[in-house]
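Support request from a user on the community tier.

User writes: "When I paste my structure tokens into the form, the page sometimes reloads and wipes my input. The last time it worked, I copied everything first. Here is what I submitted, just in case something in the input itself triggers the reload:"
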């Protein structure tokens, strides 16, 4: 009888260990299936905080209908200028169900390029259509971030050159064919 009891507890323990191992394998597979997107929003917020901390006051050059102007961008205005590019939150948690990541080594640019494209038709309220992150192939530091948004009739493109500048291009259709292009170039390394 004692032998039967020992065998019962050994089988129970083996079954528990085997089930636990299966659960760990399933959990590991779920983690592996979640893509770890580059946290673009956190990166840009970090760059903005760095500008503020270092006392850099960016200068913005505006071009609209051939007219040019410039002004300083004070830290209190950062949210007005860069706020549209801080939403939606670009990270794995928020974008994994909508976008997929492809990556490759671009030998021409000497960068690792990460491209994020829609998996399926995006919700109507999702202005962000795609984005790219370029990492230096030697240092793995971010060189550039590019993204494309459609907000109503307006198309916006952002090119963020890490630690240096950002360029925002907005295209607004007029009468269904002609368009107004506005460009804002903001630099904090001059």
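"...and here is what came back when it finally went through:"
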């Amino acid at each position: 009888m004692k032998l039967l009891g020992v065998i019962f507890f050994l089988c129970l323990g083996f079954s528990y260990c085997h089930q636990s191992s299966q659960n760990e394998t399933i959990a590991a597979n779920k983690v592996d299936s979640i893509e770890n997107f580059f946290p673009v929003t956190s990166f840009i917020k970090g760059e903005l905080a760095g500008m503020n901390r270092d006392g850099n006051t960016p200068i913005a050059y505006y071009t609209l209908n051939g007219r040019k102007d410039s002004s300083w961008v004070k830290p209190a205005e950062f949210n007005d200028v860069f706020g549209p590019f801080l939403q939606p939150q670009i990270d794995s948690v928020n974008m994994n169900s909508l976008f997929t990541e492809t990556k490759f080594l671009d030998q021409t640019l000497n960068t690792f390029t990460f491209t994020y494209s829609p998996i399926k038709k995006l919700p109507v309220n999702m202005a962000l259509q795609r984005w790219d992150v370029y990492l230096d192939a030697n240092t793995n530091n971010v060189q550039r971030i590019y993204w494309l948004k459609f907000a109503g009739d307006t198309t916006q493109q952002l090119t963020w050159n890490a630690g240096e500048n950002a360029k925002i291009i907005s295209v607004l259709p007029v009468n269904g064919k002609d368009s107004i292009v506005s460009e804002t170039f903001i630099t904090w390394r001059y």
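Agent notes: The reload is a front-end session timeout and is unrelated to the input. The chain is about 30% helix and 40% strand. The first strand starts at residue 59 and ends at 64. Escalated to web team.
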